[in-house]
Fold this protein.
Amino acid sequence: MENTATTTQKAFRRVLPEETDAEVRSLHAMCVNESQIVLPWWHNLSYLAVGVLFGIVLVKAEVISWFRIQEMFRLESFHMYGVIGSAVVVGALSVLLIKKLQARTLYGEPITFGDKTFNKGQIIGGLIFGLGWAMTGACPGPLFAQIATGATVIVVALLSAILGTWCYGYFRERLPH
Amino acid sequence: MEMLQQPWPWWAAGILIGLTVPLLLLLGNKHFGISGNLRHICAACFPGNIRFFQYDWRKEAWNLFFVAGIVIGALIATVWLKDPNPVKIHPDLARDLAAVGVTNMEHLVPKDLFSWDSLLTWRGFILMVIGGFLVGFGTRYAGGCTSGHAIMGLSTLQWPSLVATICFMVGGFLMTHLILPYILAL
């Protein structure tokens, strides 16, 4: 099993020398910290459990509400600013603590952080996403959650988002970065 | 139970969302970020000959499990923790929406704008199809979304993430104030 993984890894490295660069990978939400431990698939259920908690929060705090997102952009409510702001504070304090204590994962591996590098995509792409965010009232996570609240038509928006990501991949080399 | 059914306050949500960051790190050194899943889905289902999708998406399977969890969680919240009252919104927003025929406040996702029937109207089509496309294209171009940049990126003090987050907000303000009124009036 481990051998196969190494072979695949090598194959990918041959095809994409620069994509395996940790910096580039970190820019594109790739897992930069590949675990050296090979775990059975069901270990992924722990991430499913965290996702369940996250999904409940998204719905119950109305983060997935189109109305709340509108209120945020119309400056009519503090709610979303409070949610994101306090999440960043809690996240930053946790990261600080993890770094200070040099905490390790459940499996004893070190926890690592990579730096993101700036490119024009964060500006242009950021603006494009912002436009879409105010239209759908959803970022990618809430798109999934909205469907589960019974708004089944959001499947169309999600498929469209997947198409958007695909088109970005297609045109990527011709876009300014 | 009644407390759980009511809309949760911002600080409760903020703390729980913030705790997702260390939870994922401690479980397996995973960095919180959701939009990457859209890329993994492309890589898994239709990579074509596109270099951007030629990677081992199976290594990111944890993230697909995380998203599957979001769907289950949203389902649980909707079935067992549903707030029977209509969504409370700011009176100015209610007034402006009523002017364009959006009056149904029963769901977090307004029925008058997002339904299978409205998909066939200009308004619904633009909001869902074009809006969804911009979300998928923009997040990948920016290298992350609200979770990857605004929460994970800012938590680790990455200034490019701050740039991205500011641009998300600017884009949202532009749409809400300059373009959306025309779309809603269609």
About this structure: The mean pLDDT of chain B is 95. The longest helix of chain B spans residues 159-184. The CA atoms of residues 62 and 68 of chain B lie 10 Å apart. The radius of gyration of chain B is 19 Å.
